[in-house]
Amino acid sequence: MRKLALVTGSKGCIGSAITEKLVNQGYRVVATYFTGNLRCAELWFEEKKFNLEQVRLFELDVTNTEECATRLTTLLEEEGTVDVAVNNAGVILDSLFTKMTADSWNTVIDTNLNSLFNVTQPLFSAMCEKRGCRVINISSVNGLKGQFGQTNYSAAKAGMIGFTKALAMEGARYDVTANVVAPGYTATPMVETMREGILDAIKSKIPMKRLAKPEEIAEAVAYLASDAAAYITGETLSVNGGLYMS
């Protein structure tokens, strides 16, 4: 029977790569899109040449606790247990802390961190009952080391790691694993449009002297979702070309 994966932030560069990789590995993917953005999601679906057996578009505001509880309960009734939940939705609103607004702080925390509760909590009991399921959270190298101008983003991404370790302990007796993938700088359209000098400076700090490919992040997710990773839980898999070594 085909396994079911849910991917939040599925239309972004990394989310698209994760969705495509899981589809290619035989998963049926529930790809979330933000409330009211159906047409944008449909265009993405068509561009990627998915079919309805491979991908189901699913409207969901990951920052809305009540909506997530209601919509995801309905999803379980319609589709059955989610075997793999990939929390990938995220937003960046950079600012010096002295100039950061409460709105910028709350938006980043709600989208990048509170969404983990909102999305995972309605699914987790069914995952434990089925056993052998996976929760995979997409953090960042900046959640491990911090970053100038990103107190909100670094706090959220670091919080994801703590959340994952605690959840891993609760899921372990049910063979439900929880792990983090922490990408470094990745070749997304936003990063690649940086001024050449800035991009060169970033690459110079990476031992491998290049950005990650979105497909390389997706490969890490696929590995943690696989049976080969059944004994790995509570871990953070860094995919950053050696940018941050401990």
UniProtKB/TrEMBL annotation:
GO terms for molecular function: acetoacetyl-CoA reductase activity. The keyword Transit peptide does not apply. One of its GO terms (biological process) is monocarboxylic acid metabolic process. Signal peptide: none annotated. It comes from the Bacteria. It is an enzyme of class 1 (oxidoreductase). Belongs to the short-chain dehydrogenases/reductases (SDR) family. This is Acetoacetyl-CoA reductase. Keywords: Oxidoreductase. Gene3D superfamilies: NAD(P)-binding Rossmann-like Domain. GO terms for cellular component: cytoplasm. InterPro entries: Acetoacetyl-CoA_reductase, NAD(P)-bd_dom_sf, Sc_DH/Rdtase_CS, SDR, SDR_fam. Its EC number is 1.1.1.36.
